[in-house]
């Protein structure tokens, strides 16, 4: 089969790879129908490089089951599915760690994601354990299903934050995770949803996604505008989804006293926090949360169930976020374009393997 393999920084190749086969009795082989680019893929491509040079990459996908192991009971050949890309102790043949024993899977000491040390989904086929394979309803198309994982990442953060109906929410960074955070804030009953970014096209997308106000932090001071919009209080919930060292230091000032800040973005750099911002944590008695991955118990978690239900009911719409639909063979070229873009705007980029006609 053909696949995208990452060999080093900005060294992505479309080439032959071994097609997965059933090895273990609980293996499920999936023929991939759609697979999207994650923001973390872009950071690894540009800044970090692969865990294992030459590894088949990617982890946001959907597809159809083509083979199953002898002990698979809940999945059958032909099922339309998505896949939770996270592997924990049980999947890696290790004794369960302290956190897996408590069913706190997002904190697993051995946690890894396909595309890191195990073959990923930028390919024609992929193998996953049965418990990682999630069936999708007939009225949820493959493109939408390929975005169930990033949607679940956002919901995991909101569940940690305990967002409630009527809250005022600030979302910092209006990339794909930020747009999903806006969409979910609306579904969960937020009063105001204030989007912050430095890109006007991203802010326009935020309004389309359901934001009630936008702030371009490159041209105006967010604190004053947030205070005005929230009658001098600040936001109940602040979502940091930009992954910027600058915004990661500033977000504490956007929350009201007793408010909460959740970090979904990863800055991949040192963060220097001025006293003005840091003191907000103490003086305003903020709850500051990290949110990692998209899984809970029972595995893969209610984040996945809620996303699928929202897509099936029409409450959540994600296809409008897709800006590019491309054959998988164009992977190396599009990653380079995104990394070195000048004027071109990218939303969610969706690939389709060569087996899709």
Structural commentary:
- By secondary structure, the protein is an alpha/beta fold.
- The chain has two domains: 2-147 and 318-352, Medium-chain alcohol dehydrogenases, catalytic domain (Quinone Oxidoreductase, Chain A, domain 1, Alpha-Beta Complex), CATH 3.90.180; 154-290, 3-Layer(aba) Sandwich (Rossmann fold), CATH 3.40.50.720.
- The chain contains eleven helices and 18 strands.
- The strands form four sheets. Strands 3, 5, 6, 9, 10, 17 and 18 form a seven-stranded mixed beta sheet that branches. Strands 13-12-11-14-15-16 form a six-stranded parallel beta sheet, sandwiched between helices. The chain has a three-stranded antiparallel beta sheet with strand order 2-1-4, with helices on one face.
- α8 links the parallel β14 and β15.
- α4 (148-161) crosses α5 and α4 (148-161) packs across α10 (302-313).
- The longest helix has 14 residues, at 148-161.
- It is globular.
Short description:
This protein is an alpha/beta fold and 357 residues long. 27% of the residues lie in helices and 26% in strands.
Low-confidence stretches: none
- Overall tally of structural domains: 2
Q: What name does CATH use for the topology of the largest domain?
A: Quinone Oxidoreductase, Chain A, domain 1
Average pLDDT: 96
Q: How big is the Rg?
A: 20 Å
Find the CATH superfamily of the largest domain: Medium-chain alcohol dehydrogenases, catalytic domain
Reading off the top of the CATH hierarchy, the class of the largest domain is best stated as Alpha Beta
Helix-and-strand structural type: alpha/beta
Please count the helical segments: 11
User: Helical content, roughly?
Assistant: 25-40%
Q: What is the approximate shape?
A: globular
Q: Calculate the terminal CA-CA distance, rounded to whole Å.
A: 15 Å
According to DSSP, the number of beta strands is: 18
* CATH architecture assignment of the largest domain: Alpha-Beta Complex
Question: What is the beta-strand fraction?
Answer: 25-35%
Main pleated-sheet profile: 7 strands, mixed
SSE pattern: EEEHEEEEHEEEHHEHEHEHEHEHEHEHE
Keywords: Metal-binding, Oxidoreductase, Zinc
Pfam families: ADH_N, ADH_zinc_N
InterPro entries: ADH-like_C (IPR013149), ADH-like_N (IPR013154), ADH_Zn_CS (IPR002328), GroES-like_sf (IPR011032), NAD(P)-bd_dom_sf (IPR036291), Zn_alcohol_dh (IPR050129)
Cofactor: Zn(2+)
């Amino acid at each position: 089969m053909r696949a995208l393999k990452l060999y080093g920084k900005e060294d992505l190749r479309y080439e032959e790879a071994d097609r997965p086969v059933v090895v273990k009795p609980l293996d499920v082989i999936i023929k991939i129908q759609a697979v999207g680019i994650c923001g973390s893929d872009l950071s690894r491509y540009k800044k970090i490089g692969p865990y294992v040079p030459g590894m088949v990459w990617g982890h946001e996908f959907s597809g159809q089951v083509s083979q199953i192991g002898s002990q698979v009971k809940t999945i059958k050949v032909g099922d339309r599915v998505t896949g939770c890309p996270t592997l924990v102790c049980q999947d890696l043949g290790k004794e369960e760690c302290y956190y897996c024993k408590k069913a706190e899977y997002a904190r697993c000491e051995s946690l890894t994601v396909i595309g890191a040390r195990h073959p990923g989904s930028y390919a024609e086929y992929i193998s996953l354990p049965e418990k990682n394979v999630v069936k999708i309803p007939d009225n949820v198309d493959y493109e939408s299903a390929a975005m169930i994982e990033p949607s679940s990442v956002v919901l995991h953060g909101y569940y940690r934050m305990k967002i409630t109906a009527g809250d005022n929410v600030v979302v910092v960074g209006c990339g794909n995770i930020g747009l999903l955070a806006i969409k979910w804030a609306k579904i969960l009953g937020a009063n105001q949803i204030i989007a912050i970014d430095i890109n006007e096209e991203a802010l326009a997308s935020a309004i389309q996604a359901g934001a009630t106000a936008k702030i371009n932090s490159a041209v105006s001071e967010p604190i004053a505008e947030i205070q005005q919009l929230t009658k001098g209080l600040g936001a109940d919930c602040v979502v940091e989804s930009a992954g910027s060292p600058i915004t990661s230091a500033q977000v504490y000032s956007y929350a009201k006293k007793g408010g909460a800040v959740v970090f979904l973005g990863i800055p991949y750099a040192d963060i220097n926090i001025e006293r003005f911002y840091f003191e907000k944590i103490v003086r305003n008695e903020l709850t500051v949360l990290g949110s990692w991955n998209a899984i809970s118990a029972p595995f893969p978690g209610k984040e996945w169930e809620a996303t699928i239900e929202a897509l099936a009911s029409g409450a959540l719409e994600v296809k409008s976020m897709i800006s590019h639909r491309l054959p998988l063979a164009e992977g190396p070229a599009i990653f380079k374009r995104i990394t070195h873009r000048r004027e071109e705007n990218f939303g969610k980029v969706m690939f389709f393997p060569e087996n899709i006609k």
